[in-house]
Amino acid sequence: MGHGHGHGQVNPQSASGRYLGRLFMALGITTSFMLVEFIVALSTSSLALLSDAAHMLTDVVGIGMAITAIVLAKRASRKSSRTFGLYRAEVFAALANAVMLFGVAGYVIYEAVGRLDDPPTVPGMPVVLVALGGLVANIAAFALLRQGAKESLNVRGAYLEVFADLISSVGVLISGAITLAFGWAYADMIIGVAIGLFVLPRSFVLARRALRILFQHAPERVDVGAVNGALAALPGVVDVHDLHIWTLTSGMEVASAHLATETEAEVADVLGAAQRLLAEDYHIEHATLQVEPINATERCAELSW
Question: What is the rounded distance in angstroms from the CA atom of residue 151 to the CA atom of residue 57?
Fold first, then answer.
């Protein structure tokens, strides 16, 4: 007879939920300055400033989606039919952020190439002043989100966008200074392309991490073979099968497994040892383990997946 048992509980307050207030503050900062950048970019024909404004738009949308995902996750935890809540909404938000960053980078590069033959005259002083303001705004948002980015993929998505925009603000500042000092029209386009290329690898890394979670791959830090071997080496355990380890959302890793035991083995002892092993050695606090005598595993062997 099988014995199912869970250890730990999924915390209805995900890692990013603790940073909701900071997300709102960052949203206010980026939204306000994004509008300023768009207005000045359109009035000066600055592609570098326009690209920075577009990046800031992805900051606004990305932070907004992060906030929405957290609110949805909290509400979903109250629905009995949603046994895992809507924590994956955070991962979808992070993936959407990465897709937006790819789109913005492609648009900036396309526009820059189109201007090569006839670069517009861009006034340096307005670009420099707005770039300085954008740099300050991004530093403030960056500081607000930095700690949360270490714990939550969702917050990390917004954090990476702000970080990329901070770097692009430095680039815009440089292009404005060059234009102001030397009147070189191509500086604005070169910086625009550099900003677009800069964000692409970061977008790829973010998308890859989100897809790993959505495809329910084991966390990169966990060696599934080693976990299997460690469980199989526990006293009384003769076989481990149906071992699954996956990430629900940032900071929430779960596992399930069947442990086949010697007939005389004490179920409670085996279960407790397995729970301690997963929690202490692999930091997996939520595990559902079925302990079953070795002569009762025929049903598991019949399954084809």
Answer: 24
CATH of 218-302, one of 3.60.110.10, 3.90.1200.10, 3.40.1190.20, 3.30.70.1350: 3.30.70.1350
* Residue in this structure with the two tokens 């629900």, named with its chain if needed: 248
What pLDDT is recorded for position 1?
Answer: 44
- Spatial separation of the C-alpha atoms in residues 177 and 172, rounded to whole Å: 9
Cβ-in-10-Å burial (0-12, 13-18, 19+) of 266 comes to middle
Give which of 28, 252, 250, 16 is closest to 145, Cα–Cα.
Answer: 16
Alpha-carbon distance 154 to 148, whole Å?
Answer: 9
- Name the architecture of domain 15-214: Up-down Bundle (1.20)
Enter the tokens of residue 38. 């768009």
Q: Which of 259, 243, 257, 268 is nearest to 293 (CA)?
A: 259
Contacts of 92 (CB under 8 A, 6+ apart): 69, 210, 214
DSSP one-letter string for 6-23: EES---SS-GGGGGHHHH
Name the β-bridge partners of 247. Answer: 253
Looking at residue 304, what is its pLDDT? 62
Segment 201-247, tens digit of pLDDT: 878 888 898 899 999 999 999 999 999 999 999 999 999 999 999 99
160: amino acid identity, one letter: L
Task: Determine the 3-state secondary structure of 302 from DSSP.
Answer: helix
Instruction: Tell me, rounded to whole angstroms, the distance of Cα 297 from its chain centroid.
Output: 39
